[in-house]
Amino acid sequence: MNRIRHFSTLVTRSPSHFLDIVHSEGPKIFVSGFKNPYLNISMEDFIFQNMPVSDSDASSKTNNNRLLLYVNSPCVVMGRNQNPWRECNVPLIKSLHIPLVRRRSGGGTVVHDSGNVNFSVMTRREDFTRQKHAQMIAEAVNELPAKIEKRITGTDEVEEVSGPQVKLKLNERYDIVEAHENRKVSGSAYKIQRQKAYHHGTMLLSSELKILSSLLSRDVEKMGTIEGRGVESVKSPVSNVGLDKDIFITTVINSFIREYGIQTPEVVVIQQEHLPKEIVQSSRQIAEYDWVFGQTPDFTHTLKISGDFNGLSEVELKFTVSKGLLKGIELESEADLKEIDPGLAFLNTVVQNPEQKVRYTSAQILEFVNNFYIRNGIQKALDGGSP
């Protein structure tokens, strides 16, 4: 039985103290002390943008690598160039009041909850490879024994907890998966910028997989067909590692220390009240409609709606959307849009004017729609009626 190692910790004292640590030379290990997804994602980007980069001359290299670990409250996080209406069940997300977050890096859509830990490793660009840190983490987890002693928070007592329930490996896309069944336990995304890069990912430890699946599944018959540009997620069967959250965090810290030969490791615990205003402002920006939905690449959304439409039992409507704004409506049948719904026909003329901005939400669209069946179909397909 192994006893989990603990490190000296430094708790941030003020925004200026946090900034001093972020800008200082040498390797840094950060653990977030809060679960707000907008703040954590903004903080991650801030640390990356402000980490010092050592001279490219090999004789003067300084290890300024960063490791950040955080746990978010339940949320759905998509890549920068993705379409939320295609990637996830927006009506369900809205009905559960779960934040939908667009990060600043690429990659696919994932669900975060308290059973999932997020990691981010930031390095010099020349030290970056897609598989390096995924392999580092997979090997570290595989080395854990079946039973581990863990210190109970706030005491000197220890408890025995189980080690990982599965062995891990990397697949051909460098995702961390179960070694035997190839079920995905960790998704990754990357960002390369000038002289530095980062690899961040999730690790499913004890997540609610049924809820995860529901949030990322959409019924095409009810929610329609999306066509357009944008990165599509690669759907994969998933599984939990079955490992204690604190054990995983400490294991990743250990592997980072070992990988980069850090002699005097210190973990910086970041308190929410000590975040600088730049991070707070960024967190507000990425929570706004213009970022979450307005950054969506242009697309069309086709809905087939059954009901009573002046003798027709079904209509097919195609909505054209750009930057989260409705730009046009087409009726895919021989009937006239005015005959089916005069209000919807009027809306189509309104959105032809570039000065008129109608968000692609049921709250704004339904202000114009008269037909009960069309109202119901749009509401179910877009967002369940939430603004």
Brief summary of the model shown:
With 387 residues, this protein is α/β, with parallel strands linked by helices. The chain folds into 2 domains: 8-293, BirA Bifunctional Protein, domain 2; 299-383, Enolase-like, domain 1 (2-Layer Sandwich), CATH 3.30.390.
Q: What would you say this structure looks like, in words?
A:
This protein is of the alpha/beta class. The chain folds into 2 domains: 8-293, Bira Bifunctional Protein, Domain 2 (BirA Bifunctional Protein, domain 2), CATH 3.30.930.10; 299-383, Enolase-like, domain 1, CATH 3.30.390. It has 14 helices and 20 strands. It has helices at residues 15-23, 37-50, 84-87, 90-95, 132-142, 209-215, 220-223, 245-260, 277-285, 289-292, 337-340, 342-350, 362-365, 372-382; strands at 2-3, 9-11, 28-32, 66-70, 75-78, 100-102, 110-112, 116-124, 147-151, 158-162, 168-170, 176-178, 184-186, 188-193, 196-204, 225-228, 267-270, 299-309, 312-322, 325-331. The strands form 5 sheets. Strands 2-17-3-4-8-15-14 form a 7-stranded mixed β-sheet, sandwiched between helices. The chain has a 4-stranded antiparallel β-sheet with strand order 16-18-19-20. It has a 3-stranded mixed β-sheet with strand order 1-9-10, with no helix packed on it. A hairpin with a 2-residue loop joins strand 18 (299-309) and strand 19.
